[in-house]
Amino acid sequence: MCGRFTIILPPEVLAEIFGLPELPRIEARYNIAPTQEVVVIRQNAEGLRQLVTMKWGLIPSWAKDPHIGNKLINARCESVHEKPAFRQAICTRRCVIPASGFYDWTHTDKKIPFYVSMADGSPMAFAGIWDSWKAPDGSRLESFTILTTNANSLIAPIHDRMPVILHPAEFDLWLDRDITEPEKLTRLYQPYPSDLLRAWPVSSLVNSPRNETPACIEQTVS
DNA sequence: CCAGACGTTGTT
DNA sequence: GTCTGG
DNA sequence: CCAGACGTTGTT
DNA sequence: GTCTGG
């Protein structure tokens, strides 16, 4: 699944691959955890892409207690079109979460964290959905969740789920607000090809969200 | 009708 | 054991 | 996802 | 908001 990730991308690279109209101001993050503020990309009604900051953990618009978002950090692709918390968002409020890689923990043997990134070091793009929650004081809180799918052969030994990773050619379709038919979207939910990814073990430093240094992604040698 | 849930993960 | 917070 | 808390009272 | 369960 996806419960921790990184974004270490120069603004130029981010703007280029995601087709942003302006250079974003973005800093490197080595250990992004649920509940934190994260930049995501969505498209406005005019088709213009924008980088916006949202909280990780989707709070449905109808939620009475926003803490529900702490649990909704992932949405299973197999059920995202049916679940009450997600089915509206999946039709009209899709987003892409730019990343460099994500972490996964093994549970067989000892709990060992792994870092997964693109084999060629290029940016990674998670498929996500977002919602807007109205607080009692009238303010708005935007939040998102990351879709998950079955693990591919590279990830499977670590974990049975992985995030839905989009190919650059799929960004237009995913972000198009006029496309609402599930059958046009479900084909994007396939596990990303193993040969385009790489994975290596990392130190347990990453376990605590308080540690946010480059050492989090360094390969451990045994 | 109203009340209560609405989610994922992993582990057993 | 289970929930909250990051 | 993992780490860390997990409680009440009264007083400052 | 919308569905399920009582």
Automatic annotation (TrEMBL):
Q: Name one Pfam family in it.
A: SRAP
Q: List keywords of the entry alphabetically.
A: Covalent protein-DNA linkage, DNA damage, DNA-binding, Hydrolase, Lyase, Protease
One of the entry's Gene Ontology molecular-function terms is: peptidase activity
Recorded superkingdom: Bacteria
EC annotation from Swiss-Prot or TrEMBL:
3.4.-.-
Family classification: Belongs to the SOS response-associated peptidase family.
Recorded hits in PANTHER family, A to Z, give: ABASIC SITE PROCESSING PROTEIN HMCES, DC12-RELATED
Specify the protein name: Abasic site processing protein
What organism is the protein native to? Geomesophilobacter sediminis
Source taxonomy:
Bacteria, Pseudomonadati, Thermodesulfobacteriota, Desulfuromonadia, Geobacterales
